[in-house]
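Write out this protein's structure.
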Amino acid sequence: MDLTFFEGFKVLRRRNKVLFTLIVATLIVVFWKGVWGLTDIVFDEWLFRDHLFWSNLAAIIISIILLSGAGVLLEKIA
């Protein structure tokens, strides 16, 4: 990627904060849509086919473990 692309974002951020905010918010939503879709495929179709309860329970448990690990990592960094 060219540095001018990022420089253009910096200029947009300074000149038009509303448009910049809308672009960033849209990108965040699109990112989470992709994450949501991938987790649906992994948990609902590959691991726990036709078992929605176990799929959701496994997702919650894995999320708690990952968030706890991230918390421990952040404590060591800070």
